[in-house]
Here is the input.
Amino acid sequence: MSISISVIYDSGYGHTRKQAEAVAEGVREVERADVQLISLADGEADWEALAASDAIIFGSPTYNGTISARFKAFMEASTGKSWVPQLWRNKIAAGFTNSGAMHGDKMQSLVTLALFAAQHGMIWVGLDLFPGKSDNDLNRVGGWLGAMAQSDDASPEITPIDSDLKTARYLGKRVAETAQQFHAGRGA
Here is the structure.
């Protein structure tokens, strides 16, 4: 049985896009898991693909202590497209975020994404990684609710650092494995 996972994200400067690509790499590590990246910068979300997905992973940069305006617009548009007909009910959900500061109120962005998923009746998957102790460790920023990354004011080719991208990849793999378990348990 194959599962479908969508990674829908916004990225202002390319750093969160890089994180989204790492999440997708993690999904691809799981056998029979297909993934598609949906960039909100490219225009209207692919609502049909989202409805057909077994899991949706949300990603947004953290600006001024919360998600981006473009991601918020997507959330508001989902009301009529997905929430009223409950098209995402019982889908697996997860999230990731990135900001320039080490903390940067990233937790607020993840809480916003998790609450959004809960309002859609989704089942949230967080990280099961202990916080790292160094820049080389997974989950160095110390998030439980989702993957957090920190990017310096530099090109996305340089930042976020490798351990943040490995954390995002780990989240993608964890979501794919969880979606397969959930799917198998439902007899799908």
